[in-house]
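Loading example: each entry is read as two labelled lines plus one structure line.
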Amino acid sequence: MKCLIIAAGKGSRLSRKGNSKPLIPLLGIPLIERVIRSANQAGIAEFYVVSGYNGEQVRPFLDGLAVRCGVTVKHIINDDFEQDNGLSVLKAKEHLSEPFLLLMADHLFDPGILQELLKEPPEPGAITLATDNNTANDRVDMDDVTRVRHEDGKLVAIGKDLADFNAFDTGIFLCTPALFEALERSAAEQGDSSLSGGVRLMAGDGRVNVLDIGGRFWLDVDDPRALDKGERALLAQLRDKPNDGPVSRYLNRPISVRISRTLSRFPITPNQISLVSFAVSLLAAVLFAMGGYPALAAGGVLAQFASIIDGCDGEVARIKFQESDYGGWFDAVLDRYADAFLLFGLTWHAFAGSGAPIVLFTGFMAIIGSFMLSYTADKYDGLMRLRMARGKGWRMGRDIRVFFIFLGALLNQPFATLLLIAALMNAETIRRVWVSREPG
Amino acid sequence: MKCLIIAAGKGSRLSRKGNSKPLIPLLGIPLIERVIRSANQAGIAEFYVVSGYNGEQVRPFLDGLAVRCGVTVKHIINDDFEQDNGLSVLKAKEHLSEPFLLLMADHLFDPGILQELLKEPPEPGAITLATDNNTANDRVDMDDVTRVRHEDGKLVAIGKDLADFNAFDTGIFLCTPALFEALERSAAEQGDSSLSGGVRLMAGDGRVNVLDIGGRFWLDVDDPRALDKGERALLAQLRDKPNDGPVSRYLNRPISVRISRTLSRFPITPNQISLVSFAVSLLAAVLFAMGGYPALAAGGVLAQFASIIDGCDGEVARIKFQESDYGGWFDAVLDRYADAFLLFGLTWHAFAGSGAPIVLFTGFMAIIGSFMLSYTADKYDGLMRLRMARGKGWRMGRDIRVFFIFLGALLNQPFATLLLIAALMNAETIRRVWVSREPG
């Protein structure tokens, strides 16, 4: 399926954020790159982009992006970008003789919307418009959004000033080439060369289907406020990870997403963030081992800080389309080393103070228990998903472990902390092995 | 697909091993259970068993087995078991009106043979015989085997005394009900009521296809020598595990399969063996921690012994059809604990002797390195299979680690051993992380 993206407009309300609207970054990624990568996640690999205003900046960027993403991007130039956006669509007429997706360069969306849309192609001569039937959607700018009215799955009215409406136009269309003819007729007969004009004309013939996006995310980024709303919306999605433990959910994530928002503006890779978090943990372990309460307390704070940063690698990867199996694994391996060093530092601290063998043994049991918890996590998760038929439910994990280290260090109770971690982690490991055994 | 199994004969040459041949155990599992479980592995779940001699023992056993295996077993009784085996087949005539598999209760075989056979059903009115075209197969008893000659995929002669032959009859057939009619005709016209007689008659009409088993394992267990050969053959298969490290392959497995052979005769579960191996490792760790060379050396020997027993759980599981995902995981979890305790015992031993912090740190690094090696093993294996397109190749693992502990203890070099393990295991972990990274 080919995809046409309209990126010719001037976007004057965002001009202070950058002089080419499609290239304005949101969480470090230009708007048009987000559109192309989201569409790519839905399986689209062949793009036609209509550029106009500042096209000499947009086109080289897209050429580079095409290589990085492994997609093809063909340029269509519209020098009449000051006029209605229907003209931009019309420029693509000669390139598109089959059904195609039509997207706006400044509309963010959940790739799931495209997947739904692609399931039911419109009949020949018709088009389908993805609509947001939630008219209470507070991310929508009521002064600027295109309103629609639909009945029985067909569009009946469209326009910015529509008083009687029951949905919003998301700017996402699944089209047939019939749209081009409608745009030409609208321009010639009504003097209206806007995209809405062409759609309105087709709606009059009952040739515009509507498909509700079912509450999925979309956003038209037209001004600085919308840009900020978009960043907040993407960051909010990061906070809803089903496996997150309570410390992650209520303490670490709220802080880490704020850090990730800042980090996303810089060319820092998720693996580099993993390494930084690891280095901070190492430093904390060294502070533990140095002895004395001030170093212990400072180490505890650093350890908790490292645990917070440890959330950022995955968050930045997700908001910058850099997720990878390797990245997740690399982070997990570093986390295991970090945990072990923290606990060894704490053990050293406690043992140097008392010289009691039991301290050494307890520290060893805390290290092994923490490891076993990670070692058994994947198997346990898989089993729980299978047996309980649910993906939800947190598991005892790293967030709790490091939080105990943090508290224990602040309270100057290294041995009690080791004892608690050793008991909890090994007990949970044994519980997992027990509940996982075959029935009967 | 239904499966008919002939289990009526007396098997007098094995009578001193048990008074009902199908129930004589081979590595702890009765011959007929092996046949049914092997067929079940090839996807067969509906069995008809012709019992005769000592059928009052065979039938209750099969009823219990059916429940344990989740298959159905229907009994067919042949009181004429002293006569030719074709009569046993004929007793099943009224039960089988569709193509069916025909197996002998005393023939062991690789389930892959059935899978191959089931791929190409014979045309109506014909049957297919699985043949072993390797006439040099030294597991075959030349005085007793049924010899065959085939040309162009068709059987042309069959008999125990055939001088000019090019394959052996494996006793594995894919039949159509046409076989029953041939058996009746052979008995009536030739006075030959043996299975071979019926097959010979069909061969005369070109209605017996042959399929070579391609070197797969099969064995007719007719006498104590064959029983021993069968045990050795199954044990030999255990020794060829592609991921086995060098210590496993050349030291541990040759010993562990001998132990497994003995263990298989007792009602001991694989998980119980895992627990025993773990307990022996714990004992070794305690000996290490006690201090003094004699305890150290004894601990080293025990550790290596535990490592050898650690192979038996999987071996017994395989030869007794008790393999399970949980069993493998349970063993892995216990192994991680065992490794950690052994290394902690060794660290304690070395630290108590010297009191040097570097010893403690080295022991800690050995424990963490060993853990990381196991933690990264699955991911690394999967990746190597993918990238190198091969399933072969050993990985550095537990066998080497414990062998170093064994040697180090014997040579009274606990610190050097910890140093070596720490260096090797962490270096290998880092190497894995490095080679696994994404290209580019």
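Chain B touches chain A at residues 324, 326, 329-330, 332-333, 336-337, 340, 344, 348, 357, 360-361, 364, 367-368, 371-372, 374-376, 379, 429, 433, 436-438 (CB under 8 Å).
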